[in-house]
Amino acid sequence: MYNIIPLILILLSLLIIIIIIVRKFSALASLDVGSIQAEKEAKVKEQIIGDRFKRNLVRWSSRIVKVFQAANRAINILAKWTQAKLYELIDKYKRETILPSDDKEKRIKELFAEAEELDEKEMTEEAEKKYIEIIGFDSKNLKAFKALGNLYLEVKNYEDAKQTFSHILNLIGDSEETGQAAEIYFNLGLVSRAMGREEEALENIKKALKIEPNNPRYLDIMLEIGIIIKDKIIALDTYERLVKANPENQKLIEFKEQIDEL
Q: Is residue 2 scored above 50 in pLDDT?
């Protein structure tokens, strides 16, 4: 009896071991050895590709840096050459424009006549050069600056027109409250309006009207802008002023209809 008990214990232990082995074997059998190998290969390939990309990135980065460095050197050389040529031309221009007062005035008159003739023929680039040449003789020649600004406005070069008219205001200085300043503010208003900057145009026209409150031309544009921005108060007030300043204006009826629709 006592001899059977150890035997039973041994058999139970063997049974437990067999069950564990069978379970482990089934789990091992379910594994796809091929997929494990493929996964390893994929990881290796990924690592190789990653290393190659890093090497290429470093190599191409160094090449790009070298290209930019070369381009930068070329640009610097070109800039220095251009600057030197510019100073050379300025010196030459100054030498040429140093003339006796009488000769200078005569030359300026000739240039104005040439510029106006070129402008009439719509040779705007040539006319521009003449006006700039005049300014070279006389850097404060308001007539030349005005003509140049109007030329830029005419050819729709609005940025240059704006800069030119703004420069005229700087030249006028203390005399900004004159009719001359009113005209420049008005021109700046036309430029701003052409650029689609209605609010900016309105401010410039207001400055012009502050100096010349009854100028029909200024009031006409002010009224048009008021209608465009749908400001009925500005439009109606300007309309009433325009009626007093220019009752024969052919557009008054049309203006009134547009105001009523606001």
A: no
Q: Is the pLDDT of residue 4 over 90?
A: no
pLDDT confidence of residue 151? 93
Do 205 and 221 form a contact (C-beta atoms < 8 A)? yes
Q: Residue 245: which residues within 8 A CB-CB, separation 6 or more?
A: 214, 215, 216, 219
- Among left, alpha and beta (phi > 0; psi -120 to 50; other), residue 32 is beta
3-state secondary structure of 250: coil
Give the count of beta carbons closer than 10 Å to the beta carbon of residue 114. Answer: 17
How many Cβ atoms are within 10 Å of 246's Cβ, its own excluded?
17
- In 10 A of CB 110, how many CB atoms? 12
> Which comes out higher in pLDDT, residue 146 or 5?
146
Q: What would the two tokens of residue 150 be?
A: 């109007």
Residue from 159, 166, 158 nearest 185 by CA: 166
SS3 137: helix
Query: For position 55, what pLDDT does the model report?
Result: 60
- Here the tokens at position 192 are 């701003």
| Helix, strand, coil percent content, the chain, rounded in steps of 5 | 85, 0, 15
